[in-house]
Structures are given as C-alpha cells and as structure tokens.
Specification:
By secondary structure, this protein is mainly β. Helix content is about 0%, strand content about 45%.
C-alpha cells in the first residue's frame, strides 16, 4: 500500500500509509488553512478547522473603519458579522505609520540603521540614529534655516 491509496480526498487532512499493518494515518492540516472551492472573484470562503473544511464568512472580509478608529472593527469568525467595538490585535499596523495598542493607533518610533534613515526634512533638527531608534535634537535657537529664517525651539521661523 502507498500514500496515494490512503487519500481520503479531504484537503484538510494529510494522509500517509503506515507500513505496519497496511493502515492509513490521517492527520489534520494546520487550522486556518484555506480550503474549498473559490467563491466569487476567486476568493476563498472556507478554512480548515481540526481536519474539516468549514465556511468562514470573515475570510476576505474587511470590517473597515466605521467609527474613524483604524484599530477597532473585527469580523467575528466564522459568522461574518462585524463587531465595531472589538479591538484589533496589539501590534497591527494602522494609518501606515502606527501600531494598534488597546484599540488606539499610536505612532511608532522610526527605526534606523544609519543617520540618513532618520531624515525628517526639518532644517532645525539634527537627525541621528541611536541604537536603532531615530533621535531628533533641536538645533540652537538662531541657527540659520530656510531662505531667510532662524531656528526657534526646533522650528524654522522665516523673517521677511
């Protein structure tokens, strides 16, 4: 007996031939593995759970940002309805530059490898990479900046 004879035609299991006693061993694939025929637009609408292919209406569903907070709005699996008050997992990227923490989008500190990674396009700061984190120190007040300006507490004030 070989592995092909043990195929149970269930995409949520792996099947192997056990050489001792001509038996088949069946093990479930990892939970959350997409399965089943593709739905409209080729999207997968089911996932494996404990060796069974179950419909999951949350797959490929975006609960969006109904309340303006990009760190809330979770699809309740497998039912497919949105819970607008539920928090996304901590560490989820939000608003391109932040991370979710307890339902709030907090800005992340830029990480770097060299000073040039920390360019903030502010003439009145010294941009430095310190132990993989960007540090933006204000230049002394009165430092020339822009066309006719001077630095004042980290900002450039133009004098006409």
């Amino acid at each position: 007996m070989d592995d092909s004879e043990c195929d149970d035609e269930n995409e949520c299991t792996t099947n192997t031939c056990n050489p001792f006693g001509d038996l088949c061993d069946t093990d479930p694939v990892m939970n959350e593995t997409p399965c089943g025929p593709p739905g409209q637009d080729g999207l997968v609408l089911a996932r494996c759970e404990n060796g069974q292919c179950l419909p999951d209406l949350c797959l490929n569903r975006d609960c969006g940002d109904p309340d303006g907070n990009s760190c809330t709005g979770v699809c309740i699996s497998p039912y497919g309805f949105c819970d607008d008050d539920a928090n996304l997992p901590n560490g989820t990227t939000c608003e391109n530059t932040g991370e979710c923490f307890n339902g709030e989008c907090l800005p992340t500190i830029p990480r770097c490898q060299r000073d040039s990674d920390c360019e903030d396009f502010n003439d009145c700061t010294e941009d430095r990479c310190q132990a993989t984190f960007c540090d933006f120190d204000s230049l002394p007040n009165g430092t020339p900046c822009g066309l006719n300006g001077q630095c004042f507490f980290g900002g450039c004030l133009d004098f006409f």
